[in-house]
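Data deposition worksheet. Section B asks for the primary sequence of the deposited chain exactly as it was used as input, without tags or linkers unless they were present during the calculation. Section C holds the resulting structure in C-alpha cell form. Section D is free text for depositor observations; keep each observation to a single sentence. Incomplete worksheets are returned to the depositor.
Section A, Depositor: J.P.
Section B:
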Amino acid sequence: MAREYLFVQVDVFTDRMFGGNPLAVFLDGRGLADGEMQSIAREMNLSETTFVLPATRPECAARVRIFTPAREVPFAGHPTIGTAWVLATEGRLGGAGAALEEGIGPVAVALEGPPARPSFVWMRHRDAIFGSEVPDRAGVAAALGLDETDLQPRAPVCTGTTGSQFLYVPLRDRATVDRAVLDVAAMRRAVDAAPLPGVFVFAAERPDSAYSRMFAPHTSGVPEDPATGSASGPLGAYLVLNGLIAPGETVRIVSEQGTRMGRPSFVHIRLRAQDGKATDISVGGSVVPVLEGRLRVP
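Section C:
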C-alpha cells in the first residue's frame, strides 16, 4: 500500500505569489528513508525541499532536514524561514520565538505579526567566518565571463560562512552582476579550492542595499538560486567589514536577488557592527503560500 505525505509549497522572501524562492515543506517526514527524501527533492525540482520530523533537542520545536535536488545540506536560509512559517500556520512552532533543529544544531527563529499567520520571519545566524583572500582576481573574473576591472576594487574575493560556505565575489554594479555567467571548471582553477562552494556575486548599493546572484550547479544541482538566506548573513557582515556599507549599532540591509531570473526576492539582513566586528546577525523575509498537495510513495 502506498504511503501518503502531505506538503505545502510556499514562496519565500517575497510578499506575492510567483516571486521569491519556492520551497516544498513535507509536514511529517517520518517513515521516509534518506534515499526517498532525496528522490522526492529531485522530483520537486526546487532549490530545496524540507522534511519535518520530531525534534531530538528539547529546546527545538521540530527537526528539519533540508534537501536540494542533489544532496542534503545542514543549514539553509529560505528553507528555515519557509518551514517556520508553515509550522506557525499549523500551530506547531510554539510561539513567536522558537528554534528549529537542523544539521548545524538549533537555529533560532522569530515571528512578526499574528502567530498563526506571521507577516515576517527572522532567523538567527552564527557570527560569520571568512577565509583568506583569493589572489587570482583576474582568473575569478574570467570564470564569470568578466574582466578584472569589473570586480569591486579593494574588496576581497573570499569564502565566508555562518553554517554553509560560499565564495563571495564583489562586483562594481548591478549591470555587471547581471552579466556574470559561471564557468565552474575555470572558477575551480582560479580559486584552487576543493570543493568549490556556491558562488555568490553581488554589488553594494549604498546606503543600505545590495544586488546579488548565487550559482550552485556544481554543489546543489541548482544553476541559480532565486534567494539564498544562508549566504545573506555573511553578506551583511562582509559589506560592513569591508567598508561597503556604513557600520553602526544596528545595521539593516536589503539584498535583492533572483531578479535576473524572473523571481524577485528581497532578503532582509540586520546585524550589529562595532570595533571591526559584525555580530547578532539575522536574516528575514515574508512568506506567501502557493499550494498544498499530497505525494504517494510506494
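Section D:
The mean pLDDT is 96.
The chain is about 20% helix and 40% strand.
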